[in-house]
Amino acid sequence: MAKKSWSDMTPTQKNIVVVSAIVEIAVTTWCLRDLKQRPAELVRGPKALWVPAMSVQPVGPIAYLAWGRRR
User: Fold this and answer.
1) Domains of the chain: which residue ranges?
2) How many other CB atoms sit within 10 Å of the CB of residue 24?
């Protein structure tokens, strides 16, 4: 299967890509803000390591939400 360029996509496919990007940016921003405000005692692992982990999309933010925060 050949890689599609933006001009080869249907309007529906373009909308899906744009909405997915917006959701990904929003979740990452939310996680980074939560990490900044949360005390270190309530974070599993060093806070300094979670910041670069957030750049691994979409695994980093999901991992932080699932396992990185203590309740």
Assistant:
1) 11-68
2) 13
